[in-house]
Amino acid sequence: MCGIAGFFGTAPRSAQTAAAMLAALRQRGPDAQHAVTWDRDFHRGDGPAHHALLHARLAIIDPRPEADQPMSNDDQSVWLCYNGEVYGWGADAAELRRQGYAFRTRSDTEFILRGYEAWGIDRLLPKLRGMFAFALLDLRHRKLYLVRDRLGEKPLVYAHGDAGLAFGSLVRAVLPWLPPERRGFDADAIDAYLAHRYIPAPMTVFSAIRRLENGHLLEYDIARNTVQKRRYWAPQPAAGDWRELLDEAVELRTVADRPLGIFLSGGIDSSLVACRLAARGHRELRSFSAAFPGSALDESADAAAFAADCGLPNTAISIPGSIAADFARIVADLDEPFADPSSFPTWYLAGATSASVKVVLGGDGGDELFGGYKRIAKHLRGAWRGGLRLPLPIMPSTSAKGASKWFAELGLDWQSAYALRFSGCTPGQRAFLQPQRPLRRAPWWRAPDTTENSPLKQLLAWDYANYLPEYILRKADLVTLCHGLELRAPLLDHRFVEAVLALPDAQRFTRPAKRLLADACPRLAPLFGRPKRGFNPPLAGWLRDDLASRFRGLGRRLQTLSDGQLDESAVDALAARYGREDSLAEQVLQLLILDESLAQLRALAQANHA
Fold it and tell me: Which of 73, 285, 385, 555 makes a 20 to 30 Å CA pair with 183?
């Protein structure tokens, strides 16, 4: 796991620009940081640079300096800047060796580099099994390829304009390259954040910075300064034994040259991974669970019992009762406005875990595969509506309840309305907070490419295009790598996913959800009788105590930071209502995070590195 960045431009940039971009990545790659820079004609140099590749390394496979990046081929005509892990590439590497390619390292980085030399980008990508975001520079053809993995485990953002192109793992790593006049916030992105708790791809909080969607490739012609984006993968069913592929996916993700563990909650998905690890003999691996002492949300005892049943050592990590001292840092580590409440306990869990291991396996992906979210069953009740819409008026309101949410859902077709099932501020609240902005009824989610006739599969396609890559997986990446911890998700192995997609609906979709998984782990049977609790912190207490001081002047600050998009009196009125109505806790948290995030980003934007 690593952080990557770079730029290719028509004018030289100062050494401070590259240094600021690399500094933004340092937490993601604490083991080594390197920069390779060129002049306009791609002659290497140390002064002001037209072009650069930047890398911060968390060394997991072959931690020797020989495997550091950016990495080049023998004549330095092809360069790779890569974040992620690719698994099961040994047989393909052996074939490359037979063809005469000499490997200097044991790293998957070099496999990608040699694979591109031998096969080109289109034949290489199908051979990559794992999680990745990379920039591959081919100086022979003056081309740069930016690639993001199939399911979206690794992030990749970029900026393109007359001055060239820049990219990075983080928004904050691209920002120093932009000229000051292009560092403005995107008003649509702020509205999208209010609607969804995060900013969906391809948007970011800055209008000049875009996010590459999962399963996509961006080809940049350096000489012409043009970009072409295309999708190279979409979820499709493929025949295979899902049990064998699950075990294979788990086993492949145990390969590491650094200490390995597992995140274990009381839920089905992480318990399944733990069960299969134990069954395959990995009983030395430590499991780590979050504990909320004295809270009904605490699942650490269930996790410890399951770990003991599997024979795995377990460590319960107590989540602090106070977050005031860490709030600003956590918001910074989330890169841009992002308001998943579970980010906070996961951040603490990752920080404590990283003191013991550098790689953990997790259970992300199971709900999207097997329809495990409660909101899916609720929304399916209205599938009869199809494309029927009833555009009823939406009145501005501070309330999280009432008719406005129902009216908003009826104003959209049934599929599009699914986004409202997991939303931040209601349409009425957004209209209230932004009185000068016309209300957008449609979600900011990206419509999936699907021809599914099944209503359930249609909803899951929306999750695969939006909620999974840009909410669940973005959070997982950000709050682990900021502590120098690599998170691997076996249930997101694309071959396992494709095999599950090929199952008959009656086998894949059960009530309770995921009953099929007991075939791979009978120990899961007692878990199906428990209610799904999620991974939620004691938010009300944090807002009442730790973050109370942040309410003072909140409306004024947000009106200023948003250039008047959010109204001061409206923000303060909604915050005041929270004091009387606990159901507004998540919306208030959104506003507090937006305030801190925009303030940090504006300060960074005002620093002139270019």
Answer: 555
